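Researcher: First entry.
Model:
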Amino acid sequence: MNRILLTLVVMFMSASLCLGRDTTNVAQHPALAFAWGADAGASIDQTGNDMSDINFSAYFGMKRGWINFLGVGAGADIVTSNSCRSYDLFAAFHTNFVNRPTLFFWPVRVGVSLNYLENNHNQAGAYGSTGLGINLARGKSYCSYIMVGYTFRQRRNVVVGEETLEFKNLHYATVKIGISF
């Protein structure tokens, strides 16, 4: 009987200690915060279509804990060798998989690319980007970074009269420098 009573007392005390613990610790449950940022960079065409470009984008959303950024954004890609332009609308996600600052993070962007092609043709296609982000400098309210990665932009053939203009998908090696707040 004493053993049962002792076991019940220990269980009761353990439960009361667990229930009385403050679980609002900022390190365990960081606050949801507004986030925004911008980046600029260059992309080298890996498909041989002479479509290397300079690009810039801006985004806004939220951050919390291991989610460094989750939101939406828009970007512009200006081809350096011709008059083609692409405007990207995307959902973006950056994470370092832990609740503390780290050197590396994983950026992902998925969306649609509004492509303005040669000879006044335009179309929409899929857009995606991923890679490796490296944090450069960090303060209480900002973080600067470099991203190195892969970018995909879908393009389709265009039929003009009886002629088909061939536009192949684009695959890029991309480098960007940016800042987020």
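Researcher: Second entry.
Model:
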Amino acid sequence: MQVGLTEGLPQGDMRGAMKLSLMALSIVAAFLLVTRGCASFNSYWYEGYLPQAIEVEELLFIEDSGGFREGCGAAVYKMDGLSLENIRTNGLYALREAKQARRHKAREYSDWKETPYIEPKDEIVRNGWLTGMNEGCSDIPSEMERDINEALGEPGSFYATGHESGLIVIPKRGWIIFSHFG
């Protein structure tokens, strides 16, 4: 015979136990809503740094780290079929208008260039806009990081830079990546 947790408790204690259970459940539900809401907002915020000319289907990865004024991080999105096909067919020509961030009007990007990306020789550490993908800013899964580094080192992908940020388009994978530091 199984005995319930509230069985044998006086009526007042049983009500107290029920209130405590409901309060605990409410706290857990509120926590889940806040964390899910923050993740959705983070994705929306980062997507706003992508050019209007490139549509995305889904978020594949996002992570950042920040303080009061500065931050760093990266987001990887899967491009939608039409954008991807246009880039695969037309290369740099397809990206010629992709210079303005969709929801951050002050954010503009340089002309797009084809990889391989060669870091400036005078940099002591990795170029700032790429630093957003480093450990401490975002822990990109190792397989994804390997694919990004491979794409940066060989022809066939594209990149553009902006103030303390950059974009990478990897047609082979169907990805667009926003990375920032600062």
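Model: Note on the second entry: The chain has a mean pLDDT of 79.
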